[in-house]
Amino acid sequence: MSESRHRVSFQTIILVLCLVILASTLTVTLVFLNKFYDIAGDMQDSISTYQSIDQLSRNINDSEDAYQSFFLGLTGEEPPEIRSRGKQNILTPLYKAMAETNKLMVDYDKNPERYFLINAINSGLDYLENYVSYMESQQFPLNAETEFSDYYWGIKVYSYLNGYCYSQLLSQAVRNDSLASITNMGDYEAAKFYILDGHTRVPEILLGSVAALKKVSAEDLAIIKQCAKDTEEFEKTKWAEKEKQSEKIVREKGTTVIELTPEVLADFQSRMAPLYTKYGKGYEDIIKQIQDIGKKY
Description:
Elements: H1 2-73, H2 80-104, H3 112-136, H4 145-175, H5 179-185, E1 193-196, H6 210-213, H7 218-252, E2 256-259, H8 262-279, H9 284-294
Parallel strand pairs: 1-2
């Protein structure tokens, strides 16, 4: 009887141990899968963002090409169906661009910079949608100076939109891939080298409507400007703290963080000097101010 009890107790212990091991294995597996799906989801979000920005820009370019060929090619004698088709060729890619901005739109609290950029692009797209109808009502072919001026105003809006897509929206997406971003997205688990070359610095700019500010008293305006200045220093402090935390994490995870020596940095700057000579003519004072500020960091 005692041997039977002993045998049963031993079997019970083995069964309990197996269950504990199984539960532990399942827990570790679930934690790993959860982390994996989080990282995969973040990477997919980044890929989708870049694809949408690229498609957005393509649609705007297609609409601009159709705008130029249609309005410059009109003689004023075309039948209505030709005009209708030409107008549709302009508006179709414009509507596709609007669909891409819907994909890129985020809540203000999540990403205020992108929120304002997308709203600015949407404003331009809405303006062009109405402007195409206005242009269609003009006299053709375009001969008078005022008619050409109206035509080129539309081209300026297209240029503005392309500037926002690449100079602003794309750079904002790329800028997010910073030390803080590779920590949040887990990039350090695959990218084992990170170079702190300081090759670009993007200013954060606060803008205010001149019309709105004229309605504010001098005292309130002074408070607003002081708040903006205080916010600037607060953001710099918090961002520096975040970068230090992120750098600590990626170093601990085995990523090699490479900092340029003064000699390598000087060599890089000397190689870039001809570009400043070629493209910086007339802006030497501004360039020097930027360089002087950069020396503080």
